[in-house]
């Protein structure tokens, strides 16, 4: 009976410890070990995330996610000025696009008697004016 109790206690302890040791990495986070030596251009990144030493990584870093999802994240020093500017640019929403003046897509109500064939988009039909000279 004592042997059965000891075995049950051992199984209980192992059952409680195994999941705790498997998840001890906090979600299997990838860490930057060094910074990129080159400036990262704005047109190749889509977003970024911060790496903090308090979360188990050796160095603080900014990890930029490239637009091409098959490429790895790019690591940068958060204290660099160009990194701060790139983060700010990614945080700012893009300016709203102006509608082309010659676009027929959004010009008032449709003409009576015309069946809507459906527009596939706004074609650039800007009118070019020739300057009238003397």
From TrEMBL:
Pfam families: IL8 (PF00048). It comes from the Eukaryota. One of its GO terms (biological process) is positive regulation of canonical NF-kappaB signal transduction. InterPro entries: Chemokine_b/g/d, Chemokine_IL8-like_dom, Interleukin_8-like_sf. Residues 28-90 form the Chemokine interleukin-8-like domain. The keyword Secreted applies. Keywords: Chemotaxis, Cytokine, Disulfide bond, Inflammatory response, Secreted, Signal. Residues 1-23 form the signal peptide. Residues 90-134 are annotated as: Disordered. Residues 104-122 have a biased composition (Basic residues). GO terms for cellular component: extracellular space. Its main location: secreted. Inhibits hemopoiesis and stimulates chemotaxis. Chemotactic in vitro for thymocytes and activated T-cells, but not for B-cells, macrophages, or neutrophils. Potent mesangial cell chemoattractant. Shows preferential activity towards naive T-cells. May play a role in mediating homing of lymphocytes to secondary lymphoid organs. Binds to CCR7 and to CXCR3. Interacts with PDPN; relocalizes PDPN to the basolateral membrane. Interacts with GPR174. Belongs to the intercrine beta (chemokine CC) family. This is 6Ckine.
């Amino acid at each position: 009976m004592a042997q059965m109790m000891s075995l049950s206690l051992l199984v209980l302890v192992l059952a409680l410890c195994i999941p705790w040791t498997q998840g001890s990495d906090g979600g299997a986070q990838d860490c930057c070990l060094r910074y990129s030596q080159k400036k990262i251009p704005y047109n190749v990144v889509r977003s970024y995330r911060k790496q903090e030493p308090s979360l188990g990584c050796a160095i603080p870093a900014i990890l930029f996610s490239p637009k091409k999802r098959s490429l790895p994240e790019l690591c940068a020093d958060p204290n660099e000025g160009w990194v701060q500017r790139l983060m700010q640019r990614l945080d700012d929403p893009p300016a709203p696009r102006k509608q082309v003046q010659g676009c027929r897509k959004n010009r008032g109500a449709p003409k009576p008697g015309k069946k809507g064939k459906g527009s596939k988009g706004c074609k650039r039909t800007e009118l070019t004016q020739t300057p009238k000279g003397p």
